[in-house]
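To the structural biology subgroup,

Please find below the input and predicted structure for Ribulose-phosphate 3-epimerase, which we are adding to the shared reference set this quarter. The sequence is reproduced verbatim from the submission form. If anyone notices a discrepancy with their own records, reply to this email rather than editing the shared folder directly, so we keep one authoritative version.
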Amino acid sequence: MKNIIIAPSFLSANFADLKSEIKRCEEAKIEWIHYDVMDYDFVPNLTFGSKILKDIANSSNFKIDIHFMVKVKTQSFEDFFTDYIKCNPAMMTMHIESMSTDESNKFYELCKQNNIEFSLAVSPKTEVKVLDTWLDKLDNILIMSVEPGFGGQSFIPEVLTKVEYLVEKRKNNHYKFMIEIDGGINGETSKQALKAGVEMMVAGSYLFESDNFTKKVETLKHG
Ligand code: DX5
Ligand code: ZN
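Predicted structure (tokenized):
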């Protein structure tokens, strides 16, 4: 049986009590956490910068999965990522829709130079085929199952055909990428996502708004 990764999205955590939220993740034997960076431009919401991540990273041993929902505006594309890279993330994800081809190449190089897993995301309305030229280089693909921007939205089941497409492509070409799904994951939708073939599931409101975090993590993993 393959190992399913559950990555709690800190977007739904209680920011006034992050220590307890970290503890809940540790007690549930969480290995990866998901950190959503939004800029009020690429998406209609604003979240956090690198400082909160630095504090979380210094207070825990999680592998960090940074999901950037941003259009980079710094003069040098790479500069935007400097402080995030200092937090030692295991993986960084950018949306293919938010970058030019030149920026996508720069993002790939930046990840490789810093030994960070290279990941690209697609929003629900984006065809998964736009990733075809990247499939041999990707360590991970994030399939958005809600419109990016907010926690607590309903799962869009139609995106599962993208997961099935990637599973097939990977099998036929021996690609190495993992498949991650993000948005609207709960005890029911997780079953559909697992059946389609994902290896990593992000869950925000389902976990952090629960008073039995550990049990919900188990439900996501095993149905
Ligand atoms: C939405 C974010 C998600 C969000 C998921 O744009 O990318 O990571 O936190 O939240 P839930 O699990 O509540 O849909
Ligand atoms: Zn996310």
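Summary notes: Residues 9, 34, 36, 67, 182, 202 surround zinc ion (ligand 2) (CB under 6 Å). The chain has one domain: 5-222.

Regards,
Lab coordination
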